[in-house]
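Sequence in, structure out.
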Amino acid sequence: MIGDDGVPRCWWGAEPEIYRRYHDDEWGRAVTDDSRLFEKICLEGFQAGLSWLTILRKRESFRAGFAGFDPVTVAQFGEKDVERLLADAGIVRHQGKIRSTINNADRALEVIEERGSLADYFWSWAEPEPPPPVEILSTSEVSTALSKDLKQRGWSFVGPTTVYAFMQAMGLVNDHLDGCHVRAECAQARRHVLGTDL
């Protein structure tokens, strides 16, 4: 879709402005920072049953409430933190998802101990660079397998659709459509992370 700024981008990222910025500056760009990876998989869990726009508008409140999604800090949250978050109108006040985030922080620390970083673990699931998608899917064989592995590790709110949305956003798959102005840039960043840009 050609936006009112004359820039071609994926149809879903044309408007509103908050989506446009998210599409242009974040979605599909290769992320290797553990806190950002942890934040995103947790926020995708909160998004289940809601629109991503709702979560995006509340993201700064989520970051404040969950200590910047530092897994070391979140893993230490107790019942007072659960009560505090349930009273925070700035986030999605869903007790199951709040407790899931705390649980997943513990699970993230286990992955970091085992693999050295969340990035090492998640990027081992990166999909090879395919041709541009004709349509944007909601799951894949890899997201289904990663979801299963995460669940076996004790993570929660990590179904195949949630995991695929996480993979799309963090650059583990490049689902920018053909002609989108950031597709090539995202593809190059992925190749750099995967060591295939030589």
